[in-house]
Amino acid sequence: MPQTSLPDKWGAVTIVGVGLIGGSVGKALCQRQLAERVIGVGRQQEELELAQQQGVIHEWTCSLAQGVSRADLVVVCVPVDQIAPCISEAAKHMPLGSLITDVGSTKRNIISALEGKLPRHVEYVPGHPLAGSEKSGARHAQADLFHQRRVILTPTAQNTPRGLARARAFWTALGAEVLEMSAEEHDRMAAAISHLPHVLAASLVLATPAQWLVFAASGFRDTTRVAAGDAQLWAAILQANCDAVQQSLHEWERELLRFRRLLETGDGRGLREWLAQAQQVRHALGSGNPSDRT
């Protein structure tokens, strides 16, 4: 049975989708001994067996119902367009008092799809760790992926103080700083700092003549690194957060138009001020972590 107080150690934690993020959750749980059992659920037996061999999970199954049937906590790490159906189905088979969270980088669409559809004995706390990589698969899992990273929780009207506290305790135990904001604000933020940058990186790669790419040095490679991310996963993210991405795109287009006008009018002073403003903002951001991804 799920524990009635905030656990120092969870009983069974089930990870649905044992890729980079899910695998890193599992690896952190195993290495920090935060759960008695870590159960992986997925579709590809070979990947699950590899995850088990690498110490990412203790056991695995391809049956969602079986995998969540004794879980204190379920962490859903599938692509954003699959999260709501996965949570809906998993909740039918979860024990009384169990908790479910996710890692999706969009929140409004998931919350809306699940509104009023979950059984009362299960609580869903929407989450999003601001960490990751353009790499994929449990083979790239890192136990310290969430260390000193931020995790955003976007509480719903159905969340209880206890449910939020349990979700916060879980991510904190993995080394993360946990913050809360509305789903609407989260999606606007994610569009600006993650989703639009991915679009810009992809467009820069596609706009550059192929014969010149052989000359690309660190500046181009660093700027376009995220374009190497999984195309299917990112297409789902961009579609799910369409409105917020379009708003960020409009704002970027206005800034690009400002630059174009400075260039066309030969306004050297304005151009230097524009670049200096960007430089100042970027310096304030700091060096960050090369493995960050939202």
From TrEMBL:
GO BP of this protein: tyrosine biosynthetic process
GO molecular function: NAD+ binding; prephenate dehydrogenase (NAD+) activity; prephenate dehydrogenase (NADP+) activity
Residues spanning the signal sequence: none
UniProtKB keywords: Oxidoreductase
Domain of life: Bacteria
Start and end residues of each Prephenate/arogenate dehydrogenase domain: 11-293
PANTHER family referenced in this protein's UniProt entry, alphabetically: PREPHENATE DEHYDROGENASE, PREPHENATE DEHYDROGENASE [NADP(+)]
Protein name as annotated: Prephenate dehydrogenase
